[in-house]
Write a structure and sequence with these properties.
Blueprint: E1 9-14, H1 18-28, E2 34-37, H2 45-50, E3 58-59, H3 63-68, H4 76-84, H5 87-96, E4 101-103, E5 108-111, H6 117-129, E6 133-135, E7 139-144, E8 147-152, E9 155-159, E10 161-166, H7 182-188, E11 193-199, E12 203-205, H8 209-215, E13 219-228, E14 234-243, E15 247-249, H9 251-255, H10 257-267, E16 270-275, H11 282-290, H12 298-306, H13 310-319, H14 328-336, E17 338-345, E18 353-358, E19 375-377, H15 391-414
The protein binds flavin-adenine dinucleotide.
Length: 415
C-alpha cells in the first residue's frame, strides 16, 4: 500500500469501536468498499468492557426527552443523527443481529443475556460478509498529503481512501485503545477541538483521617445528591454513593459530573449536598431529634430519631463535627443537606467517558470536517456529553451512522 496509487478503499474507517463499526456498516450497506483500521489487536474492546456489568445498550426515552440528555442545546448534527437513529432504531438494529433486548426498571435497555460479546461477534461477522476488511494493530498517526499513515508491527503503512471516518473514541480507559492521541493531529490540521475532560467520573474530597480509615470503600444506599450548576439551576440525582480513599464515586455522582466539573473549573471547588435521609422531611426529622434523649448516647439517639448509623452517621459527623452539641433543627438540616467540598474530578483515564472533543462548529451537518473535506468524525471523539444509561452508546452509534452515510456520499461524488 503506498500513497501514490489511486484510492485503495472508498471509505477508510479508523477506530473499530461502536461508532466506527456503525460507520462501516452504513457505508458497506450503501455499496462502498470499506476498510476498518484499529490500533488494537481486536475491535470493540471498550464495548466489551461496557458489557461486563450488563451492557446498557440504549434507553427507552425518545424525542425531546432523549435529546435533553445531551445538554440543553444539543448541536444540530447530533439532533439529526439521533432523529434518524434513535433508541428504537438501536433496539431494532440489535434485533436484526438476533439480539433481543428488554427494558430494565429505570428505562435502561439491555440485551436479553446482558452481554456485549455475542452482539459484537455477530456484528463483525455480518460486516465481513458485507465485504468490510479489518486491519488490526494499525495505529493512525496522521496524514502524509492525502494518504493516511499507520504504525503497524511491520512498520509504517500509507493508505489512500476516497473518504475517511475517524471514530477514535475519547480518552477514558486508554488501555482499551482510545487515548486521545488524535487531538494534536486534528488541531494541527486546523480542526477545532474542545479539551478532553473526565465525564461520568468520581471526585476528590479532602476527608478527615477519621472518615478515610473507617468509611473508605463503603456504599451509602439510596441518598439524593444535589448541586447548583453554573447557571443557577439545581440538579439532583438519587442513587448509591460510594465513599473512597480519595473521595466519592457512584452512578448518582456520575449523573452530576458535568455540573460539578464545570463549577470546579470556574471556582476551584464545588459543593455537593447529600440528603442522608431522603424518605424523611426536615420538620419530621427535627421533631424526632427534639425528643428527650435521656441517658442515651448521642449515636443511639440519632439512630432512633433519624435512622442514621454506621457510614451514614460518619458522613454527618464529617460535615458537622460537633453534631452532638447541635440543636434538633440544625441537626435535621445537616442530615438533609450534608455538604461536601469537591476539589477535583478524578483523572479522565478513570472516567467512564470523556467530555470535549471535536467541536460541532468545525463540522458540517453530515459530520464532515470543514478544514479537511472528505474526513468525517463520529462517536465519543465529538464534543457531546451525556450521563450513563445507554446514552453514550446510542450517540456513538447514531453519529457513526451519520458519518458513514456522509462518507459514502462523499466517496461517490469524488469517484
Ligand atoms: C467501564 C465502562 C463501561 C461503560 N458502559 C457503558 C454502557 O453500559 N452503556 C453506554 O452507553 N456506554 C458505556 N460506556 C461508554 C461507551 O463504551 C463509549 O462511549 C463508546 O464505546 C464510545 O464508542 P466510540 O466508538 O466512539 O469509541 P471507542 O469505543 O473508544 O472506540 C475507539 C476505537 O478507536 C481505536 N483507536 C483509538 N486511537 C486510534 C488510532 N490512533 N489509530 C487506530 N485506532 C485507534 C481504539 O482502539 C478503539 O477501538 C462505558 C465505558 C466504560 C469505560
Amino acid at each position: 500500500m503506498t500513497s501514490r496509487r489511486p484510492a485503495d478503499h472508498d471509505v477508510a474507517v479508523i477506530g473499530g469501536g461502536p461508532a466506527g463499526l456503525m460507520a462501516a456498516e452504513a457505508a458497506a450497506s450503501r455499496g462502498a468498499r470499506v476498510a476498518v483500521f484499529d490500533a488494537m489487536a481486536s475491535c470493540g474492546r471498550k464495548f466489551l468492557v461496557a458489557g461486563k456489568g450488563g451492557l446498557n445498550l440504549t434507553h427507552q426515552e425518545t424525542g425531546d426527552a432523549l435529546l435533553a440528555r445531551y445538554g440543553d442545546a444539543s448541536p444540530e448534527a447530533l439532533r439529526a443523527a439521533l432523529a434518524t437513529f434513535d433508541t428504537r432504531a438501536v433496539r431494532a438494529w440489535a434485533a436484526g443481529l438476533g439480539i433481543e433486548t428488554f427494558v430494565g426498571s429505570s428505562g435502561r435497555v439491555f440485551p436479553s443475556d446482558l452481554k456485549a460479546a455475542p452482539l459484537l461477534r455477530r456484528w463483525l461477522e455480518r460486516l465481513r460478509r458485507q465485504g468490510v476488511t479489518f486491519h488490526q494493530r494499525h495505529r493512525w498517526t496522521g496524514w502524509n498529503g492525502d494518504a493516511l499513515c499507520f504504525e503497524t508491527p511491520a512498520g509504517e503503512v500509507q493508505v489512500n481512501a476516497t473518504a475517511t471516518v475517524l471514530a477514535l473514541g475519547g480518552a477514558s480507559w486508554p488501555r482499551l485503545g482510545s487515548d486521545g492521541g488524535w487531538v494534536a493531529i486534528l488541531e494541527a490540521a486546523g480542526i477545532d477541538v474542545a479539551p478532553l475532560a473526565p465525564s461520568n467520573c468520581g471526585f476528590e474530597v479532602r476527608w478527615s483521617e477519621h472518615l478515610r480509615t473507617r468509611a473508605a470503600g463503603q456504599p451509602l444506599k439510596t441518598v439524593v445528591l444535589s448541586c447548583i450548576d453554573e447557571r443557577g439551576v439545581t440538579r439532583t440525582a438519587p442513587g448509591d454513593l460510594l465513599l473512597t480513599e480519595y473521595g466519592i464515586e457512584g452512578g448518582c455522582v456520575y449523573a452530576l459530573s458535568r455540573y460539578l466539573r464545570e463549577t470546579i473549573a470556574a471556582h476551584g471547588q464545588a459543593t455537593l449536598s447529600v440528603d442522608l435521609a431522603p424518605a424523611r422531611d426536615t420538620q419530621a426529622l427535627a421533631e424526632a431529634l427534639a425528643r428527650p434523649r435521656g441517658k442515651q448516647r448521642f449515636a443511639r439517639h440519632l439512630e432512633r430519631a433519624s435512622g442514621l448509623r454506621g457510614t451514614r452517621a460518619l458522613l454527618l459527623y464529617e460535615t458537622l463535627p460537633d453534631a452532638p452539641r447541635q440543636d434538633a433543627v440544625t441537626l435535621a438540616r445537616a442530615i438533609k443537606d450534608a455538604r461536601l467540598a469537591l476539589t477535583a474530578a478524578r483523572p479522565v483515564e478513570e472516567a467512564i467517558s470523556s467530555a470535549g472533543g471535536v467541536r460541532f462548529t468545525a463540522l458540517d451537518e453530515s459530520l464532515m470536517a470543514r478544514a479537511k473535506p472528505g474526513v468525517f468524525i463520529a462517536g465519543e471523539m465529538l464534543d457531546w456529553e451525556a450521563p450513563t444509561g445507554g446514552y453514550l452508546l446510542t450517540a456513538s452509534l447514531a453519529t457513526g451512522r451519520l458519518a458513514g452515510c456522509g462518507a459514502t456520499e462523499a466517496a461517490r461524488v469524488t469517484r
